C-alpha cells in the first residue's frame, strides 16, 4: 500500500483492534467472515470499488453509500469497519479491496488470539504449507486456478476439518483465493508472518538439509532475537537438496549459507573464466 492508503488502513485497523480486545472470540471471528464477504463484493463489482475509492467524492458520502448497501446484511461492527474503509483515501481502487481482505484475515487472527489459539493456528498454517510443498499432486490441485474455487476449498476441508482450528481452515481457503494477489503458498507464508506480528514476533524461515535439534533451534532463535531486537520464531523446512548448511529468511533479509549455494557460486565463477 502507498502512504495515503496505509493511513486509511491504519485507522480501520485501530478500530478492529479495539473491538477485538474486548469482544468474545466468536464475535470477532464473525466479523472476520463478514469482512471477507465484503471483500468478495468489492472483488465482484469493479464499478462499486471505483465509486468507493473516488477521491473526487467526499469520504462521508462514500461511507454512507457502503452503509446503505450493507445495512441488514452484516453486523454493526462490520458495518462500521466497512464505512471507515470506504470513507478513507485510497491510492487505487484495488487497494481498498486489498484492505478489506487483509482486515478480514486480521480479524480471524484476532479471534484466534482471543481464544488462545493463535500460536497453534500459526503452526498449522506453516505445517500445511509444508505438506503441500512435499506433495506435487496436492500442490498442483490446490494451485490450479482453472479448477472452481469451491472444489479446491472442499479438498482443503476434507484434509483439515477436525484436524485443525476453524480459523486455520478459513485462512487456508482465503489463501486459495489468492490473498492480496499472491500465489497460494506465498499467501500462506504471509499469513504465518501476520500471525507472528500479532504476537509481536518475527518469523525466520530456515531451510536445512537435516532437522535441527530442539537445542539448535532454540540457540538459533536466541541469536536472531538478539539481532532483530524482538522475539523470533524459527520455522524450519528440511530439504536434502541444499546438501548442508542452512538458509535463513527473515522478512526480506536472506542469509544463505547452504552448500548448494556455495556450489552454485563456484560453478558460476568457473563459467565466467
From TrEMBL:
Q: Which gene encodes it?
A: atpH
> What is this protein's function per UniProt?
F(1)F(0) ATP synthase produces ATP from ADP in the presence of a proton or sodium gradient. F-type ATPases consist of two structural domains, F(1) containing the extramembraneous catalytic core and F(0) containing the membrane proton channel, linked together by a central stalk and a peripheral stalk. During catalysis, ATP synthesis in the catalytic domain of F(1) is coupled via a rotary mechanism of the central stalk subunits to proton translocation.
Q: Pfam families attached here?
A: OSCP (PF00213)
Name of the featured protein: ATP synthase subunit delta
InterPro entries (alphabetical): ATPase_OSCP/dsu
- Which chain regions cross the lipid bilayer? none
Q: Which UniProt keywords apply?
A: ATP synthesis, Cell membrane, CF(1), Hydrogen ion transport, Ion transport, Membrane, Transport
Q: Which GO terms describe its cellular component?
A: plasma membrane; proton-transporting ATP synthase complex
Tell me the organism. Asanoa ferruginea
Localized where?
Cell membrane; Membrane
Amino acid at each position: 500500500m502507498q502512504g495515503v492508503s496505509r493511513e486509511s488502513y491504519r485507522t480501520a485497523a485501530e478500530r478492529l483492534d479495539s473491538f477485538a480486545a474486548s469482544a468474545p472470540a466468536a464475535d470477532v471471528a464473525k466479523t472476520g467472515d463478514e469482512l471477507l464477504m465484503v471483500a468478495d463484493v468489492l472483488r465482484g463489482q469493479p464499478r462499486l470499488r471505483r465509486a468507493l475509492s473516488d477521491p473526487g467524492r467526499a469520504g462521508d458520502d462514500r461511507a454512507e453509500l457502503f452503509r446503505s448497501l450493507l445495512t441488514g446484511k452484516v453486523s454493526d461492527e462490520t458495518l462500521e469497519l466497512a464505512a471507515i474503509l470506504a470513507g478513507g483515501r485510497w491510492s487505487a481502487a484495488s487497494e481498498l479491496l486489498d484492505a478489506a481482505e487483509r482486515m478480514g484475515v486480521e480479524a480471524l487472527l484476532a479471534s484466534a488470539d482471543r481464544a488462545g489459539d493463535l500460536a497453534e493456528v500459526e503452526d498449522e498454517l506453516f505445517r500445511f504449507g509444508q505438506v503441500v510443498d512435499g506433495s506435487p499432486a496436492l500442490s498442483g490441485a490446490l494451485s490450479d486456478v482453472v479448477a472452481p474455487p469451491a472444489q479446491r476449498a472442499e479438498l482443503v476441508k476434507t484434509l483439515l476439518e477436525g484436524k485443525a482450528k476453524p480459523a486455520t481452515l478459513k485462512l487456508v481457503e482465503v489463501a486459495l483465493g489468492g490473498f492480496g494477489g499472491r500465489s497460494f503458498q506465498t499467501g500462506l507464508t504471509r499469513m504465518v508472518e501476520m500471525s507472528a506480528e500479532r504476537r509481536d514476533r518475527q518469523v525466520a524461515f530456515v531451510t536445512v538439509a537435516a532437522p535441527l535439534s530442539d537445542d539448535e533451534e532454540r540457540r538459533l532463535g536466541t541469536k536472531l532475537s538478539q539481532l532483530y531486537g524482538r522475539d523470533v520464531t524459527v520455522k524450519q523446512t528440511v530439504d536434502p537438496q541444499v546438501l548442508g548448511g542452512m538458509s535463513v529468511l527473515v522478512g526480506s533479509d536472506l542469509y544463505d549459507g547452504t552448500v548448494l549455494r556455495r556450489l552454485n557460486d563456484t560453478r558460476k565463477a568457473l563459467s565466467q573464466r
